Each structure stands twice: as C-alpha cells, then as structure tokens.
Amino acid sequence: MKVRSFLVIGAGRFGTALSRTLFDLGHEVVVVDRSEAALEPVMAHATQAVVLDAVDEETLARLGPANFDAVVVAIGESFEGAVLAVAAAKSLGAQRIVAKATTELAAKVLAKVGADEVVRPEHDSGVRLARHLVTPSLVDAFELGENYGVVEIEAGPDLVGTLARLRLTNRFRVQVIAVARGEKVTAAPKADFEVAEGDRLVVIGATADLDRFREGLRG
Fold this sequence. Notes:
35% of the residues lie in helices and 28% in strands. By secondary structure, it is of the alpha/beta class.
C-alpha cells in the first residue's frame, strides 16, 4: 500500500474522525487547529498535531500544503474561516483540496474559491439513510457528479440468477461492475455469473436509472 500524506485543517468531530481513520490506515496525517484543547483527542492518532491558525496564508505556508497528497479543510464552526483556508491552500499550491460544507450555498462558494471536492457529511448521511429506509436492501450509495451514481445492493430473492437472466442493463439501463460474496469480490462479472441471495452487487448508472432500479426492487 502506498503511504499518502494528508493535511487536515480543523479538529472538530469530522476532522478528528477523518484524521484517526487515515492514521489508523497507515497514512501520514498532520492535523491543525487553533485550539490546543481540540487537538488533544487526536494527538495519539496523527503523525503531528499543530496549534496553528490555518486561515492565514503566511502561517499556513510553514506547513507546505503543496507537499501533501491532499488538504482537507474540515472547519465547521466558521464559514469565513473555511473559505479563507481553502483560498490560502489553493494559493500555496495544494495538489488537491477537499472541503467540508454545511449548506448547498457554502458548497458552491468553497468550490468557487478553490476546493476540488466539497462534502456535506450530515446531508450526505441523511440522503443515504433515506434511501436505505425506503430500500432496505440498499447497503450504500454515492453520486458521481450530478447525473451518475453508484449503489451497493444486497441481493434478495428477486436478484438471484445469472446476470443474463436478470437483464438489469436492458430493464433498468444500469451496469453491475462488481459482486462481493463474503470476502471474495468478482470485478466486471460476465453475463453467466450466478448471483446468489446475500451477494452484494455494486451497480453504476445514471441517477434516474438507479432510482428506477431501486423502485423495481421495492415493487
């Protein structure tokens, strides 16, 4: 596994969870926050924890944002601070900037000032929960841009048989790109692949087609 380096700005709940996970996965993580108290819970789960005001470009420059594989701006309590931090990281040559937003408007502004990707954790988890509630077999889902997405579905009795017989591409215009059975994963399964109940199907398609696919499962 290639060890990557990440700079996480903001040690709130989101930033702390992200830093801990990246570090526990074996990557290098530098997490910064203006508050030393906020950094205490993550100190044992980061390569380095630094008390620093990252909204100031001159101060942020000391960490060399351009040297990290990605900079994550996880400032949640101050929208202005998040905007300034993204702009500073962009100005300093950060390779990739991921920013956390709380609203759709904030997401648009952060993208405008330089964020390569914007995440809305509460919104996204709410959408996933809603989809799971109406389609219990849905394991996970995420969007690819505005018009495409990927869903992971647990096969019930109505999704058993060969892919050729299930005809998901013809019926719903979606494509099965992988099937997981326990620890074994079959990528790009062929038409004669036999889906068993309990298998997890990873399906890609246009958002509207994925919605029809989920409706078909419920129906």
